[in-house]
Design brief:
2 strands, mainly alpha, 13 helices, 2 domains
Length: about 350
């Protein structure tokens, strides 16, 4: 089995390794939905009622509480690609029984959640928290981090579900109490708008508390991020200093073919053609038929000083001649038609 190197866990950033689980930081300051944008799809698309939001929150919490301590205790010894597969198998084992139980009861939440309920088994929040935090900490710290992230995820999901059900349908927990019907909130774009508004509100609140000196969590998060960036910058500088400049490649010598060298062939020079003093013979011009007028080339028009004069002197007579010929032909056709009509009259009884 191909495993990761022994020090693969120590290669993670010190900001993640030195981070301690905190209820306020993980649940609100680094909220998985509003700040990290993890696990957005179920909340945006399926959390349209309080009941659906509660089911999504419970499934997510169960996956985090089971997978994170297990990753911190046992799964961190496995290679990364195998750990992610185990997370998804555990998610299926936790989600499918709930889906089966809801279908047996004929719960309305199955229709509301639709395809997103079985897709919760492949929750990205579980894989991200296990790989970023759980494999670097003890099982007790992993359990606390799982509960904090589950709380932050559930808080946003429940708020979004309550707002969408109240303003979109005028009900709460399926009981209608006012006439309100904003259909846009049922759609995914309505969920995106609500999540964006909550994210902006959280940022304003944290900035206000930080400016008043009431809450320093924003400063701590900023310090962690700056430490992480500084460590990456120093690591990059060390790599650049230790890397020796590569010598320029030497041009390859030109190889002569085996045997005697063949001199390059000189280009053949054509002999000069004798000069002829005879004038060039003009090309024969095709004479038009007697019944058709000759077409005047474009070159003749370009050499004319007065095109209208040439038109009146050359073109107009030809047009008149063609009109006269057509008139004569039409008169002949009329005579033929008259004779045919006379014959028809003679044949009638």
């Amino acid at each position: 089995m191909n495993q990761e190197p022994a020090g693969h866990l120590e290669q993670r950033s010190s900001a993640e390794k030195n981070k301690k689980p905190s209820w306020t930081s993980d649940a609100f300051l680094q909220n998985p939905i509003l700040v990290q944008a993890i696990g957005l799809a179920p909340v945006v698309a399926a959390a349209t009622t309080l009941r659906a939001s509660l089911i999504i929150s419970l499934v997510c919490a169960a996956q985090l509480v089971v997978c994170e301590p297990l990753a911190g205790a046992v799964l961190k010894k496995l290679p990364g690609w195998l750990r992610v597969a185990v997370y998804y198998v555990l998610g299926l084992a936790l989600t499918l029984p709930l889906l089966y139980w809801l279908e047996l009861r004929g719960d309305v939440a199955v229709t509301t959640l639709g395809l997103y309920l079985p897709l919760l088994a492949l929750n990205s929040l579980t894989a991200v928290r296990c790989e970023r935090f759980a494999v670097l900490h003890t099982p007790a710290e992993c359990l606390r981090d799982a509960l904090a992230n589950a709380l932050g995820y559930a808080a946003v999901a429940l708020v979004v579900g309550v707002i969408r059900e109240t303003l979109g349908r005028g009900s709460i927990w399926g009981r209608e109490f006012m006439s309100m019907n904003i259909r846009g909130l049922w759609m995914p774009f309505g969920g995106f708008l609500l999540v964006g508004a909550l994210a902006a509100l959280l940022k304003v609140i944290l900035r206000f508390l930080s400016e008043r000196g009431i809450y320093s969590g924003a400063d701590e998060a900023m310090e962690l991020e700056l430490d992480d960036r500084q460590e990456r910058l120093e690591k990059t500088q060390r790599l650049l200093e230790n890397k020796e400049p590569e010598p320029a490649p030497e041009p390859e010598p030109r190889r002569e073919p085996a045997g005697e060298s063949i001199p390059p062939s000189e280009p053949e020079i054509e002999p000069p053609q004798p000069l002829s003093l005879a004038p060039p013979v003009p090309a024969a011009r095709e004479e038009p038929d007697a019944g058709q007028p000759r077409r005047i080339p474009l070159e003749e028009f370009q050499e004319m000083d007065d095109p209208m004069r040439i038109f009146e002197s050359k073109v107009r007579p030809r047009i008149d001649k063609m009109a006269e010929q057509n008139t004569i032909r039409l008169a002949e056709i009329d005579k033929e038609l008259e004779s045919m009509l006379e014959r028809l009259d003679d044949l009638r009884p």
